Amino acid sequence: MKSTFPKVLHQICGQPMLVYVLKAVLRAGCGKNYLVVGHKGEKIIEVLRNFLPLRKRGIEFVKQTKLLGSGHAVLQVKKDLRGYRGNVLVVYGDLPLLSGRTLNRLIQTHYKQDNSLTILGATLENPYGYGRIIEKSNGKGIRIVEERNATPKERRINRVNVGVYCFRAEDLFKAIDKIKPDNRKREYYLTDAVEILGEMGKRVGMVITKDSREVEGVNNRKQLVNIQKYVNMKNLERLLLTGVTIVDPSSTFIDFTVRVGRDTIIYPGSTILGKTRIGENCKLGPYAFIQNCQIENGVEVRASFIYGAKIAKGAKVGPFSHIRPGTFVGEGARVGNFCEVKKSRIGRGTKVSHLSYIGDAFLGKGINIGAGTITCNFDGVRKNITRIGDNTFVGSDAKFIAPVKIGKGAVIGAGSTITEDVPAGKLAIARARQVIKDKKRKK
Fold first, then answer.
1. What are phi and psi for residue 185, nearest 5 degrees?
2. Beta bridge mates, 336
3. What is the pTM of this model?
4. Distance between CA 326 and CA 322 in Å, rounded?
5. Domain definitions of the chain by residue range
6. Is 76 left (phi over 0), alpha (psi -120 to 50) or beta?
7. What angle, rounded to 10 degrees, do the helices at 17-27 and 41-48 form?
8. Contacts of residue 432, Cβ cutoff 8 Å, sequence gap at least 6
9. CA distance 213 to 122
10. Structural domain 232-428, CATH architecture
11. Quick one: pLDDT at residue 64?
12. CA-to-CA distance for 186 and 80, rounded, in angstroms?
């Protein structure tokens, strides 16, 4: 992946790829789950806690201190499964498209055939990077050869090992104890257990997935992008079928974690991320970027960036607005062209229409903010608060030197720099007196 953090934490439509795998395992009905973590395992644990209630879901972490291959990784849970006489499902963490339905089919086949091991395979047009499933010439048993160790003839085989297995527990660890690291990387390959169990006279079965797309793994950024495109399109299809209009799906990106109400229209070039919740009858875009926001019914957002904000019913944002975290835009309010709002509350029906910066401010209801207004909130040490009362009229190019409080119904003259509180219903003008002089004539 050419990355500084673990591959399984790379995100696909708002979730680490490992979360997709864990959810598939849980849907398959596995009650006790062990996640073997090696490289930067602490980071994996930290991130997963934000996405899954781990203890409630029966997920425990097991550390692999030395990274000696997949067989060695599975060996780390041997002590946790001591005395266990059931079956063990083994899944790689980089198969985000794998479904609980397919895993359940693998498990049921394993039970019905009374196998020692059942492997999940797939037939791929391009099998590059996968271990090949090779049937022995006598027709009894199979073996798996990794790509790096395969001969040119073996690499032409397109039936591949997916990296998902259902073992009888007692046979699993008997086989692992016999694995030898005689390969180029000197690692213990779990795939060797397939041939070992066959040689022990154990029954080894195979299930071929019905959808080869489901078993695509991620080993580089190109594969990650391709899978993300696929997941995104599936997500957009889901939204379309629930009553959301997406004008151009090919130019629209919406995280799996986003929820959108019916009759909302999403125009081209829009990106909606995180735990965003969008109501009904909204118009978003073109070119709206929304992340971790709550958008209520009837909101319009055009060509704007909004992060961690709440936009109330019927409000309008944009075009070219920047709404930063901690902001609330009230019902029917407007934040317009080239405005930035940071950690502020914009009251019902208030208009911040053009070229203004509102930071650390509380604006009441029905206020008109003139073009070019600035709340000067930072004095070099503290972020100070500006409070503007209901129905105040603020002329263009006004500056509020916080902390300052403006009473209800006040009027602020255009071009004023307000440094003191203004009582309710009063007019404040704070600018230098205009002086007109004759031009000096050149001699």
1. -95, 0
2. none
3. 0.92
4. 12
5. 7-210, 232-428
6. alpha
7. 60
8. none
9. 9
10. 3 Solenoid (2.160)
11. 95
12. 26
The token pair at 52 is 């899954």
Over residues 201-222, the pLDDT tens digits come to 999 999 999 899 999 989 999 9
Domain 7-210 superfamily per CATH = Spore Coat Polysaccharide Biosynthesis Protein SpsA; Chain A (3.90.550.10)
CA distance 197 to 330: 66
Residue in 172, 175, 95 with CA at minimum distance from that of residue 130? 95
Q: How far apart are CA 13 and CA 96, in angstroms?
A: 11
Comparing CA positions, the residue from 407, 349, 346 lying closest to residue 373 is 346
**pLDDT of the residue at 31:** 83
Question: For residue 211, how many other CB atoms are within 10 A of its CB?
Answer: 11
CB 386 within 8 A of CB 403: yes
pLDDT, position 58: 81
d(CA 23, CA 28) in angstroms, rounded, equals 9
> Quick one: tokens of 85?
């006489």
The residue written with tokens 């397939």 in the block is 194
- The token pair at 239 is 């939204």
Q: Is 199 helix (H, G, I), strand (E, B) or coil?
A: helix
**Beta carbons within 10 angstroms of residue 56's beta carbon:** 7
Exposure string (b/e) for 146-179, b if CB count within 10 Å is 16 or more? Answer: beebbeeeeeebebbbbbbbbbbbebbbbbbeeb
Q: What is the pLDDT of residue 443?
A: 61
Task: Give the 3-state secondary structure of residue 405.
Answer: strand
Task: Give the DSSP H/E element, type plus range, for residue 35.
Answer: strand 33-37
- Tell me if 94 sits within 8 A of 106, measured CB to CB: no
Note if 354 is an active site residue. Answer: yes
Selecting among 10, 110, 322, 354, the annotated active-site residue is 354
Pair of tokens at residue 105: 């089919």
Amino acid identity of 114?
D
Nearest to 259 by CA among 241, 245, 276: 276
Mean pLDDT, 10 residues at a time, over the chain (443 residues)? Answer: 94 96 94 92 91 79 93 95 94 96 97 96 90 76 85 92 95 95 85 92 93 92 96 98 98 97 98 98 98 98 98 98 98 98 98 97 98 96 97 98 98 97 97 86 64
